[in-house]
Protein 1
Amino acid sequence: MEAKILNGKVVSKELEESVRNRVSEYVEKYGKAPILATIIVGEDPGSKMYVKMKSKACDRVGIDNRVIALDDTITTEGLLSLIDELNNNEDIDGILIQHPLPRTIDEKLCFDEIALEKDIDGVNSKSFGAVTMGQDAFASATPSGIMEILKYYDIDVSGKHAVVVGRSPILGKPVSMLLLNSDATVTICHTKTKNIAEILKTADIVVAACGSPEFVQKDWLKEGVVIVDAGYNKGNIGDVSKEAYEIASAYTPVPGGVGPMTIAETLEHTITSAEKKQKRIEEDKKKVKTISVIVRANS
């Protein structure tokens, strides 16, 4: 039986269309577009290219992406001050910091400064904690995209053994928690895990996210495994050997699998943040109105 290709381009296109419709309704109702503030520090070519791709995607769906380009001489304190300013700007619906940041900046400290309701990339430690506990917060975009792909192709993870290869704070760890919250039994491995081949041989679903070209080998996996390759290395090479596709029941290709979902999820999180903000505003107005009525009645 030929393996099913889990095509992220197809899923992301449909998600973008959904976001476009929601943004259109939002603009019609509130008279303004949702605003995403994207911070980029320095002149890294890869980061600049990715920010440009995000800006084009925002244009396609009607989101106002305001790119704040900073010189790499900015200090951690300067960046924290900017983030605080954006947190307090009621017009801003989402804040995204393009990473990696220069080594002179405390990246984690800056991530943790982003207000939870505007942390559309799920980089704040508190966002991760909330997601882990199944509470209302944004998960990182790529893990969210992985779950969306599995859902789109009707791959039920409940009761399945999912092995995640990778432990990064914005990919391996959050996707593990999302899988666990969806009733999968999750094992987290990494490039230093002993007997990793034996562990992977028990996996129904493998999520490869270790950033090591073709790290996961065909003979490490069992027949019928679902492969989600979230790796992207030089030369369009994933973290799983392409030979492994031969025994898989389904797999995400590289490129064209997980990659396209990251930007699509960023868009979805931004409109969701904007909608939640308007809901909070409306609820606050109702509370004020109710209090006013009570005060008048008691006057």
Note: The chain has a mean pLDDT of 95.
Protein 2
Amino acid sequence: MSWHTWNRAKLPYRRALKASSFMALVLSALFILAHPGSGQAGDEKTEVVEYGPFKITITYKEDDFDYAPSVAVAFSGAPIAMVRLDGAIGKPQVITAELDAGNAFPELVVTGYSGGAHCCTLIRVITAASDKGGTAWKVVDLGEFDGTVEDPQDFDGDGQAEFLLKDDRFLYAYGCYACSYAPPLILSVRNGKKADLTGNALMRPLLVKEARRLEKMFRKARQRREKIENGMLAGYVALKLRIGEGIDGWRRMLALHQRRERYDFCPVPGEDPYGDCPVRGYRLSFPLHLSIFLRETGYIPGRK
């Protein structure tokens, strides 16, 4: 069956399913075991699903950290993409989602998990792109993110879905994992490329709601005379900068931060970012160190 015939038979219109309904078609629920292994730990397994014109082949091993699972995709019988999830363990998951309305087909979202206490979900997106009047396919790497990742949703109502993630650069930056707050990061695919939509005006209500949640939490902590960690305040200031309330966020941070804490700063980092500073370093106060960190991470633009 051709894509057009299948699409007309299954869907009421060409681009068919909006993100909310399209997400309900989770491919992992449709997997048909094509070449079962012996069932012993460490054996390579292959599972195949056919969805419309797509044939998706997943190859993986259970509990084998030295093996990279893979997802191969064919369209109308022709191979279009191979995703190898180096660092992931176990069986990858594949779902469909409408991330990029600028092409003729929905995207295939491939995710894998690396294992471990705080890491990491790998996200790869297979998307169609125009190529000299025809259709080419490419794999867009959205990155690796702490913990589990929710399926993409259409947060701004434009018919295209986005991933609500976290900026993991803030984890451990000023203390332990539980002492840290990673501000929201909203990513998707637009025009065949990775797109950071966190600063999009249509996303602002989502970010404002999160900022108000943190401020309520801080008020309750002060009423109970609880310590507010600098790692929490760092991500909060970054979030306030995103929504155009940076001055208010900075003032609140100055009133709440732990003043006695100091942080190492290397003015000339060496080739190894985790190695010793090759020159004399400094011990900086939290506000001073944070101002440098926010510039390095792009939350405060550099001077032109």
Note: Residues 204-223 form the longest helix (20 residues).
